[in-house]
Amino acid sequence: MSVTAVGKDHVGVRSKRQGQFGQVMHRLRKNKVAMIGLSIMIVLIVIAILSPWITPYNYAKTSKADRYALPSWQHLFGCDGMGRDILSRIMYGARASLFLGLMSTIVATVVGVLLGSLVGYYGGKVDNIVMRILDIIQAIPGMLLSIAISAALGSGIGNTILALSIGGIPMTVRLLRGSILTVRKQEYIEAAEKINCSKWRVITSHILPNSIAPVIVSVTMGIGNTILQAASLSYIGLGVQPPTPEWGAMLSEGKSMITKYPHLCIFPGLAIMLVVLCLNMLGDGLRDAMDPKLKN
Amino acid sequence: MIRYIGKRLLWMIPVMLGIAILIFSIMYICPGDPASSLLGPSASAVELAAKREEMGLNDPYIVRLGRYLYQTFIKFDLGTSYKFGTSVFAGLMERMQYTLVIALLCMALQVFVGTPLGIAAATHHNGIADRICMFLALLGVSIPAFWLALMLVLIFAVNLGWLPTSGVSNGLASFILPCIANSFAGIASQARHTRSSMLEVIRSDYIVTAKAKGLSEKTVLFRHALPNALIPIITIVGNGMGMMLGGTVIIENVFAIPGVGRYMTDAINSRDYPVVMGGVLILGLIFSLIMLLVDIVYAFVDPRIKAQYEGRKGKK
Amino acid sequence: MKKFLSLVLALVMALSMASFASAEQGKSVVVGLAGDPGNIGPFQGMGLGRIGILFTTYEMLMVKDGDTFRGCLMKELTKVDDLTYDVELYDYIVDQAGNKLTASDIKFCFETAKADGNLPKLSSVDSVEVLSDYVARFHFTALAAGDLESLLMECPIVTQAAYEASADKMATDPITTSPYQVVDYKTGSTITYKRNENYWQKDELTVTTSRHNVDEITFKIIPDPVQMVNALKAKEIDISAAIDGSYISDFMGVEGFDVTQIPDNTTKYLIFNFDSIPNAAERQAIAYAVDVDDIIAFAFDGIGYHAKTVGNNKYPDFVESWNDEEYYEYDDDKAQALFAEAGVTAGKTYRLIYNVADDNTRIATTIQAALGDYGINVTLIPYDNALFGTYKYDDKKSGEWDIMLDEGGSSNLLTNVWKLTLDSRDQTYGKTVGHVADEKLQSLIEAAINDNSPENMDAFHQYLKEQCYEYGLVSKVNNLAHTTVVTRAATCFRGQILPGACEY
User: Fold this and answer.
1) How far is B275 from chain C (nearest CA, A)?
2) Over the stretch B190-201, which tens digit does the pLDDT of each residue have?
3) CATH homologous superfamily of domain C263-476?
4) Contact of C495 with C262, CB cutoff 8 Å
């Protein structure tokens, strides 16, 4: 155990020169799998940004003749029930889906990690009050929370992100709290406190690196679900309105045709899968890079 | 420990009150008209207005809130569903039998399939087992539940005819496909969390020390590594159980299972206030109890956490 | 862990025991139902789902049998004066528990239903007076054309004795006069009915809705449309009216299956918000710019027909000549000319509000694409059912939409479809749903409602068409797909399957 404590100090010393962030990035860059994940993500984001200019067809152009057209050279991914080109819709849909998915994941994670560290570090009354409030919030069905947000705050991109992220916060807090509880009383933390490290510093450079792993795993796996969820928000005044494509909505539109025209579901499904895959590759790398036990 | 549990149980009272007030307020500000779903699409605006008046929906917020709290906490009456005309509590319990079976079976699958998969992956880090396990896990979290469910139905019910397509009238057979479809994501996430936290622990110095001491792989794994990797796993299981007892709408819809999820979603969509408010309260109670259970299990798994519960002052 | 396992095992065993072995006796039929009826008590509102089981569960005083109105429980209807009618019952009606049905039960049912307030049409019943054992006298406050029939058809009838014997107001176990009795109701899942061997009516006098050609009927609630198709393919259900249009070809002309197509009584129509589109030319331009053929192709897989007014053409008060009239057929030239006349230029934006459903989304998207051809933007505002209901009728929300996609139908008269949105007396703010306060429109609809003579009907129709406050798009068609166990599918006037009247 004492070895770990020394290891932590070592990190602390180096961070003075390089900064902890830089160090993590340095290790992350050396992780091939993570870099592949990151590159694909960047490609997807670039496609999303450029989509208005590079889609093969207009994403909203309907055509009676092309209804449910199967994949072909004209339409690589086929066409949907309104004869719209699925490839173009996926490319354009990346804008809303990636933006909403990533942003709400980030918001949920940041808020969740902040609350989780507070709760885990201070324990006692803080823990009890915050966790009971989370109990209350988690008891409310997500759909109702979203409707309430839409009704009280109105529509708009910010509120959509709020509606999508609010459901992910309690899980993040709980995971982090659980991990922090196990490291909270370890010797190296107490040692850090004894040498008068600031609380912020104890949390950010000693507690979090040792307890964040479950959060990274859960966050990177949750993004697929978040993208799917966005589809249900468009009925309650939030989210993206048709015909602007969005992967979750494309999937749910194709749902009733799934046995008849499976390509309506398969391609947006694959797109979501690709994002989940990349984020997981990246997340695994990040976790390893942040793990103080895994030094080169 | 007993004191801690007692204190937490006492905390349930403000939590329940909080849930009641919050859900009531949310239903109050949510637009949507219970009268219109009761009277159907052919009712005119004048007729709807009369029905709303009769239902007491035009009273001021504070009057309705007071009435609701009095009903719930003094008379212990959750009210009667607008749509079903039967008691909310009875309705919820009737639905709960199906949800409970699904939740228990799914959690069993998740724990007994997901955990070993995760351990296998961690101990063979970057090996074949790891790759297969992680691929399955990624499939699990990225395949939408409805897609998996419909594919299973197509294969096992429509083409092979082994199992019913939907419904609950065929005993256990009715629950096989829903449970598989529903637990796939859970197994995946369980496997991944287990792998991740096992990896974390395996890299720890004391495991290295234990191995160096010449202890057998198995002993190290199950006596030293697993218990220390359990905390995130318990969190996931606890959270998953709490969520699943709230019902899984997608699976219940696809398989036409009259579970809690469909009951609540229908109620939300038709603004069946008594069902939504009563259901949220009961599910919230169950959820809080499970979270308490999770905290208690933490203490059993890790004595350090127990010490924290029992008062930090003595320790500091 | 052992305890946990044994708990699971115990649960599993309890469940498998509870699953009943279906006793194969006589003919039985399983009907797939998309909506959940919920409370099946007699005096509930007409929510979706309920309508599917209504005629199997209950009998009314009167029903619509084909195109004619016939007494079901009622033997004779006598007019006393304009607002007073005597209803004579058959004198041998008994319910499933053996209670005799008399005039006092009629009084009880109408009074209870009116007090419950779920059947708003009954508000025009002033009182019911018991004249003798089998004659009840109805006093009405007002009667427009067709009102008498719809009132007598509206209220399900049960005996007071049976109703009061029920612990939950018959929410789960109704005892009725119908030939089928509920024997098992698994809420949210299945409702099973057994034929009542002692059904009161003589065969030759039995109306279609009360026929009983099969021994056992099970309604199975299957909310997912793909699963409805799967259940029929696996022959777990015998018939369903909720098979999505694009899957119909899987059953048409396929061995072991058959499809019956019947017109649905609902019609999709557009309502223009007068506050934001006060110019008739502008409204007409939009109507001409939308191609209904596209809508039928995209939203209904080619199965549906052009509406000729706000409502379909199957109602008795529909005027035949409208079928041959030009009614906002797609016309590019006219649309362009009218847009120009109204001063609408490219870049203009309309907000289209609709109730979210697959077909509505597609209709809305088609309209959006059609107007897009003129450089006009359409913002789609979909709402779920509860929210749409609120926005549709809420005066304060009317500033948030320009065009509304709505649908409506009636069990008897076209005027009742018009009334839903076009009679300002039925709105809380004294205008139509489209915020039109047009005295001429109001006087014409009142005339048509009071007396639905072809002249009155035509006058209103022509004025509405000319002003284009609202216009009909598509009348839907119901697809009844069934296994060959059912040799002839039968439906009620509301387009719902009548399992007892199907032939086997």
Assistant:
1) 13
2) 888 888 888 878
3) Dipeptide-binding Protein; Domain 3 (3.10.105.10)
4) yes
